[in-house]
């Protein structure tokens, strides 16, 4: 599903160069639930962003669904992300000015859909995360766990083949975290969605199919 | 899609009340100034009452003479207009009138300031004054030096009060009684070459304008060509005449005077080296630039701040499939919504401002109004504003790297 070959990422500032990723090669199979662990600053987010085409590597190739991605234009890239990828962030990144339903509809806005379809699909996605009774709320009126469930609904509303989650339970207590984890596991099991998740929590990681460990930008396991 | 943009635009505007206020204030205030200015210009140079034959008229308003010891510049003498300009072949008519002059008259022992001007007979045939009663004086009456007068509606009301007809009644000005033979609709004072309260035959003046051979005096002329096609020829003939006629006196060695279109004559100072046209138009352009550019820059600045604080939203939208182009479009739509709101307020403010200006009667006989041209211009300005102040910030933020955008918060 995703194939990374010799990915290297160097951050250059005026004074220093940081080698955030050092020759990472990784294959993620279709339907796999993969977790990435490692100490803070080891390059987990960087790796995830590169897999999600939010960032470009300094060296190396990425193939998603057997498609090379390095030559895509801004527009094609946007479309690619819209069709294939869904993101979940540690700090939710909901748009506070919009109601829950509008937040969830967001990815559909960038597709050919009618308002009616969008509403239907978004409501459906919210039902899956158990929040269909909160569609008129604004994000600030929800708890952390509820917000993250809205974010998951937003990530799955467009039925992407791949979901990238950067510490989705990082801001939540363990009960809430487990709830979120269950949603992801079900998503993986029932819909066959490929999920890649960064986590600091060994328990969470052990619930996934495979664990990749990073240390200082290199893969150690 | 648009509906969604509208939703977020309104939400953002409501969240940032202060920014919104500043933006709206800037836009509406600018627009108000522009609209009132346009209404004013439109009235002053656009209104063609009573000289409806402008397109085939040329105006002769100034003569500048210069020599070693200096120069003098002024309106013209009756002699100059009648003798030289009157001899031209292309004009079919030559209207001659003096600038208006003020004097006092008394109604029931109350002092009343009035302006009067002298005209010849052709003047009334070139100008299309609307007569509410009576008519203009004829060549015959001028030649007889009949003491007759055409007065404005305001003059009629102020002098005679609210009575239906005043033709045949007498009006006194400068201790002379004149018989009223016609009443015309008011001309605003801004059309200063045509405005007056009382119009008199030039022959009734205590000064005999036909005597003397000086070139400079109180008069201006309007030449009427047979058709618009003849206007250039008329202008050329005038210039040829200027080259031909002798210097007024030995102290001068150069003379300048041109037959000009209404607009040019309106703003002309009569000084060749610093043309009034240039000055007036430069002034207007600078004013408009100041009035529009400064608020636009300010808006650009506000917009940048406003958009940058939404970088998380930008990051999210990009992550979920918005291209840079889509984002630019979204922010432009938002900005245009904002400017149109400001525009709406501006239009309302302009109506109020114009009502106030009209009710104070700051300028005699000048009634401003907002017509569709003015409104159209206003809306265009708004749209232009919206684009101008939105494009740069929108473009800048759309180039934001997704990861950076998401991190900033
Ligand atoms: N924009 C940037 N400019 C310079 N250096 C950066 C930038 N982003 C990340 N880095 C560096 O790259 C390295 C990896 O960062 P990354 O965010 O991927 O770590 P992480 O494993 O996700 O850490 P955490 O668990 O704390 O989220 C760090 O050393 C970080 O300082
Ligand atoms: Mg991280």
From TrEMBL, chain A:
Family: Belongs to the ABC transporter superfamily.
Keywords: ATP-binding, Nucleotide-binding, Translocase, Transport
Annotated GO MF terms: ATP binding
One Pfam family per UniProt: ABC_tran
Domain of life: Bacteria
Domain spans labelled ABC transporter: 2-220
Protein name in UniProt: ABC transport system ATP-binding protein
Keyword Transport (UniProt): yes
InterPro entries noted in UniProt: AAA+_ATPase (IPR003593), ABC_transporter-like_ATP-bd (IPR003439), ABC_transporter-like_CS (IPR017871), MacB-like_ATP-bd (IPR017911), P-loop_NTPase (IPR027417)
UniProtKB/TrEMBL annotation, chain B:
Entry keyword set: Cell membrane, Membrane, Transmembrane, Transmembrane helix
TM region positions: 21-41, 279-300, 327-354, 366-392
Localization in the cell: Cell membrane
Pfam families: FtsX, MacB_PCD
Signal sequence interval, chain numbering: none
Keyword Cell membrane carried by entry: yes
Topology term for the membrane: Multi-pass membrane protein
InterPro entries assigned to the protein according to its UniProt record, in alphabetical order: ABC3_permease_C, MacB_PCD, Macrolide_Exporter_MacB
Start and end residues of each MacB-like periplasmic core domain: 24-237
Main localization of the protein described in the UniProt heading: membrane
Domain of life: Bacteria
Domain ABC3 transporter permease C-terminal, chain residue ranges per copy: 286-401
Name of protein: ABC transport system permease protein
Lineage: Bacteria, Pseudomonadati, Bacteroidota, Sphingobacteriia, Sphingobacteriales
């Amino acid at each position: 599903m995703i194939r990374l070959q010799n990915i290297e990422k160097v951050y250059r500032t005026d004074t220093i160069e940081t080698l955030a990723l050092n020759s990472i090669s990784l294959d993620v199979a279709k339907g796999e639930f993969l977790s990435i662990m490692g100490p803070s600053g080891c390059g987990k987010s960087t790796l995830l962003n590169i897999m999600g085409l939010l960032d470009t590597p300094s060296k190396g190739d990425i193939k998603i669904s057997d498609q090379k991605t390095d030559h895509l234009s801004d527009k094609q890239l946007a479309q690619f992300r819209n069709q294939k990828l869904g993101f979940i962030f540690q700090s939710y990144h909901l748009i506070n000015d919009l109601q829950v339903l509008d937040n969830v509809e967001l990815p559909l806005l960038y597709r050919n859909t009618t308002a009616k379809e969008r509403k239907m699909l978004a409501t459906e996605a919210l039902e899956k995360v158990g929040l269909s009774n909160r569609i008129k709320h604004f994000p600030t009126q929800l708890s952390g766990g509820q917000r993250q469930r809205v974010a998951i609904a937003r990530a799955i509303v467009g039925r992407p083949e791949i979901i990238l989650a950067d510490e989705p339970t990082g801001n939540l207590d363990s009960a809430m975290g487990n709830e979120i984890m269950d949603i992801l596991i079900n998503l993986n099991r029932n819909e066959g969605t490929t999920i890649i998740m960064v986590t600091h929590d060994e328990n969470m990681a052990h619930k996934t199919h495979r664990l990749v460990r990073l240390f200082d930008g290199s893969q150690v396991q | 899609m648009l509906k969604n943009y509208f939703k977020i635009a309104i939400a953002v505007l409501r969240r940032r009340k202060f920014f919104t206020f500043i933006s709206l204030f800037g836009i509406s205030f600018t627009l108000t100034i522009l609209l009132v200015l346009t209404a004013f210009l439109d009235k002053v140079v656009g209104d063609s009452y009573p000289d409806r034959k402008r397109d085939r008229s040329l105006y002769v308003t100034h003569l500048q003479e210069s020599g070693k010891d200096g120069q003098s510049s002024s309106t013209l003498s009756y002699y100059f207009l009648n003798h030289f300009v009157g001899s031209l072949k292309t004009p079919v008519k030559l209207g001659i009138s003096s600038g208006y002059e003020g004097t006092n008259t008394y109604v029931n022992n109350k002092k009343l300031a009035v302006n009067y001007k002298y005209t010849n007979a052709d003047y009334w045939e070139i100008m299309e004054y609307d007569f509410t009663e009576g008519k203009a004086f004829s060549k015959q009456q001028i030649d007889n030096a009949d003491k007759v007068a055409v007065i404005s509606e305001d003059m009629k009301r102020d002098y005679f009060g609210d009575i239906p007809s005043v033709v045949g009644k007498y009006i006194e000005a400068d201790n002379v009684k004149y018989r009223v033979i016609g009443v015309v609709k008011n001309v605003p004072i801004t059309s200063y070459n045509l405005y007056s309260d009382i119009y008199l035959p030039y022959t009734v003046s205590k000064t005999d304008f036909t005597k003397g051979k000086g070139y400079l005096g109180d008069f201006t002329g309007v030449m009427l060509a047979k058709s618009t096609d003849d206007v250039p020829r008329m202008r050329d003939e005038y210039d040829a005449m200027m080259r031909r006629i002798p210097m007024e006196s030995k102290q001068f060695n150069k003379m300048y005077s041109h037959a000009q279109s209404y607009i040019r004559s309106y703003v002309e100072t009569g000084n060749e080296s610093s043309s009034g046209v240039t000055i007036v138009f430069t002034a207007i352009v600078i004013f408009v630039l100041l009035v529009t550019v400064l608020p636009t820059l300010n808006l650009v600045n506000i917009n940048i701040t406003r958009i940058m604080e939404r970088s998380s939203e930008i990051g999210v939208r990009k992550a979920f499939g918005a291209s840079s182009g889509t984002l630019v479009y979204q922010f432009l739509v938002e900005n245009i919504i904002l400017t149109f709101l400001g525009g709406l307020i501006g239009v309302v403010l302009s109506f109020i401002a114009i009502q106030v200006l009209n009710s104070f009667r700051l300028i005699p006989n000048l009634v401003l109004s907002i017509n569709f041209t003015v409104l159209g211009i206003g809306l265009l300005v708004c749209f232009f504003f919206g684009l101008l102040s939105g494009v740069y910030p929108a473009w800048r933020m759309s180039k934001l790297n997704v990861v950076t955008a998401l991190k900033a918060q």
